[in-house]
Every structure is written in C-alpha cells, then in structure tokens.
Amino acid sequence: MRSISYPRQPMHALHLFCGFPLHITVAMKLSLPLLATALSGAGAFTAVNNGRRSLTELNSMRQPIMAGNWKMNPATEADALNLARGFCAMLTELEDTCAMDAKEGCTEVVVFPPFPFISKVKDIVAKYGITVGAQQVYYENKGAFTGSVAASMVKSVGCEYVLCGHSERRSLFSDSDVNINLKVKKTLEFGMKPILCVGETQDEYDLGITQEVCAMQVSKDLRGVSKEDMRNVVIAYEPVWAIGTGLVCDAKAANDVHKYIRTILAKMYDEEVAQSTRIQYGGSVTPESVDGLMAMSDIDGCLVGGASLFADKFARIVNFKSD
Ligand code: 13P
C-alpha cells in the first residue's frame, strides 16, 4: 500500500473559498500554526463552555466512531446478513473488544447497509450495541419522488445515522451543496445524526486547494445548523483520490486537514463546537493503516468502504490499537 502526503497549501485559488471573505481566509491560514500550538498545550485552559471545560477535556470527550459504508454491496440479502453475522462473531472473538454503545472508553460502531437490508441487519447487530444508518435520504418528506427514500422511512426502521454529501453522491448523482444542506437538516429534524462527508478531488488536491474545498463544503453544507444540533453532527474527511484507490492519506496530513476543519467550525460556531465535533477520516482505510490514523490527535474515527465488506478486516479496524 502506498501512502501519500500533502504538498504545502499555496495561497492561490482563494477565490474558491466562498464561505468566508478573503481576509478571514488569509488570517486563518496565517494564524493556523499559532492556533495549533495553543490547542496542543497540555492542560490548555480557555474560555470554552463558559470557562468550565479545558480543550483537553473537550478532546477527550470525543468518543471514537467507526463506520462501515457498504455502498452498493453485497449483492443479496443472504450475503448481507452473513456479513453482519460474521462481523459480530469476529467482535466477540477478539480480545479487548470495545465496540458498542456509549460506554466510556468504547468505540461507537455504525454500519450502513443498502436500504433493502437495513432492517434485518439491524436485528443482527443491535444485540452487539452496533447501530445502523442510511447511505442517503431525500430532503422532501413524501410524495411523487420515484426511487427516493425519506428520512422518516429510514428513521422508522431504526437508522440512527445518515451519510450526507458522500463524494459518490456528489459526483455520480449531482448532489449539490444546497441539496446536501437540506438533507443534513432533514436528518436532524427526524432525530438522526448526519455524517457529513467532505473532501477534495484529485484535481483539487493537485491544485493545492484542499483547505479551500473543505472549508467551502463545511460552511455551505452546515448553513443554518444550530450550535445545539452540532452535537449530533459527525464530519468525515474523505479525500476523493483516496477512496477505493489504496492510496490512504498520510496520517499526519489527514490530521492537519482535520485541524483545519476545526478552525472552520470555530469561525462558524465557537471553540467548543470546534473541539467537540467528531471528525472521521475515510479513504482506503485498512487494518494496516488504522492504528496510525487513530493515533492522531484530531482523527476521531474512520469511515470505511471496501474493508468493511470483510468481517475480519472491519473487526480489526474497529479494534484499532490506540497506543
Ligand atoms: P474505501 O474505504 O473503499 O476507500 O471507501 C471509503 C468511503 O468512501 C467510505 O465512505
């Protein structure tokens, strides 16, 4: 497996960064090292949450979250149920398994099967504290929208999460930021949690505009989402060039993007939201790469595609070694 690291982000192409005025963008870029230094200080205490919580405490409140996005796999219901059963069996066999609910120190685990399999997969995995989610929803409540699935529908079969803005929906199904924003808000309206996927394409990566792309997507896709609702939002940074290619992003480079996304959240909301929002990395995550990724300060979990279709691989990913 090859890993890849980012070039330094040049200062050109700021025009793409629509969510913030140019001077704020430049200021954020210039102040990033200072901010990073300030945030990394052990026991750093700031005026977060009315001065009651340190940044360190807020960081430690971010429960790890591992998610398996099965995409349009496997081919049949029987195969899907076998995958779910196999994964649960692996979890019970592994030592130190700590998948499962929100117990302190545990990792939250979510799987995203195709719509027809959600109910039965949920019946299998729920006993293990694993939740299910929908790979997408439409933003209307009901009506003549052939082929679409409403938030109320996936909620009624037990979904707790919805993927919003996955790059495959953006590129293959023309999901715009306006529509993604509506889907994020619809997901929240129905008491579910969006996992908002953002990330640059290969061309954008080559242009060195990763930060601008992520900032634009985060700011547009979360427009109108309240600070209170941000407690239920997870962000997944998924560089498009890393998805399904075997080119896992260098852990440190991914961590830098995660830190940058937190600066955007701080601008949009405040430092408390920036530090408490969970941000996953996605793109060719494997058992071999997960430990390095999860050792990073600002990577709170992974959104896994291909490897989540193998019970043993996904079980190992869920049981990443944090030290
Ligand atoms: P891969 O893990 O197959 O690269 O897919 C990542 C992804 O798109 C998860 O949503």
Automatic annotation (TrEMBL):
It catalyses: D-glyceraldehyde 3-phosphate = dihydroxyacetone phosphate. GO terms for molecular function: triose-phosphate isomerase activity. The keyword Isomerase applies. Pathway: Carbohydrate biosynthesis; gluconeogenesis; Carbohydrate degradation; glycolysis; D-glyceraldehyde 3-phosphate from glycerone phosphate: step 1/1. It comes from the Eukaryota. One of its GO terms (biological process) is glycolytic process. The keyword Cytoplasm applies. Its EC number is 5.3.1.1. Keywords: Cytoplasm, Gluconeogenesis, Glycolysis, Isomerase. Homodimer. Belongs to the triosephosphate isomerase family. Catalyzes the interconversion of glyceraldehyde 3-phosphate and dihydroxyacetone phosphate in the glycolytic and gluconeogenic pathways. PANTHER family: TRIOSEPHOSPHATE ISOMERASE (PTHR21139). This is Triosephosphate isomerase.
